[in-house]
């Protein structure tokens, strides 16, 4: 039997070999190797990024179960950037708090391999393998600060609910296989070509939707998100809010657009419900939050709802809107968490929103960056977040999903309240003592993310064109 071509999976292979080397180094040198492993992890992610960017065309391998196309490359770039930023944000912060161990960069690399497999999966088996590889690493990362009761609780909640969602996804996949006779996305698409999805297949789609909704923390499978974001170390929460969301959203798009184009009327109803529920809960539940990490958790739920507005359209324009939205969401979220990591007094991180009082008079640059991220997340023109919502709402209107678009606009107005409240606290409240100097990695992530968001605010065309080209590869 001929061996499959390994070229399309070269970035994943590089990361896998690198992870094995990192494990050996860590086992031999122990905690002394932590800084070396952090640098090695960043180097591996950079090499994988270069390989992803340099590739071209549509490539298939492993009996067409693994696909690399424009869509996969675009989402892999976002995932790798998110993973690299997470390592930069975590290194010195976890070390200061006594929670850094050499296993952390290894777990990030292993989780990234799973994310990239999820993005390139072209059948249900590859999808599940990638999902579990990512999840097993993230279970450990969520409880990484094992001496902290809140972190341990966060890890346990994520593990129990994650295992439940994986089981639902697996059961949905088995139903789809039972009623179509295949696990490949192209085979499933051919079986549903006539547009007559049977009741068994619909149940399979529902269970798959439930499983993937957990991974993107969409309502009604969002319950883990606020507790995990608050309980896990802040750099870990930043990681959860960035790279895994890119991979999970790519998985959602690949499954529904790639495998069920003939059942769009069935799965569109599910996506519309999840989208509306996520936007509404994220907008209203965040209003009363006093902890900034919990506020960002509800913001993440709402943002996944906005992104799903584009998917509900089921068109190339809709997918383009989702991809644009996720790129802008990644930059704004990383910058927001970088600001949270700069909230340190007396050697400890503080999380109450009131601690930002008068920040504009003690650290004007941080206040400006945080304000730009809040305005962008609120969708205030002409910032990048406005264009993100413009693209997904336009796709929904073109698909005649008027109610969905109107609900999205209304919940954006509600959400603007708690975003602008942070700006009010920073610029108009009586100042509190200044924060301590931030770490180099945190400042780097904040600077690059802020530049990216401001550049896209006035020149969104390059990102939009790249997303358009990538979206066309799916159709």
Automatic annotation (TrEMBL):
Ranges for domain NADH:quinone oxidoreductase/Mrp antiporter transmembrane: 121-414
Highest taxon, organism lineage: Bacteria
GO biological process terms on file: ATP synthesis coupled electron transport
Cited InterPro entries: NADH-Q_OxRdtase_suN/2, ND/Mrp_TM
EC number: 7.1.1.-
CC per GO annotation: endomembrane system; plasma membrane
Protein name: NADH-quinone oxidoreductase subunit N
Origin species: Bosea thiooxidans
Protein encoded by which gene: nuoN
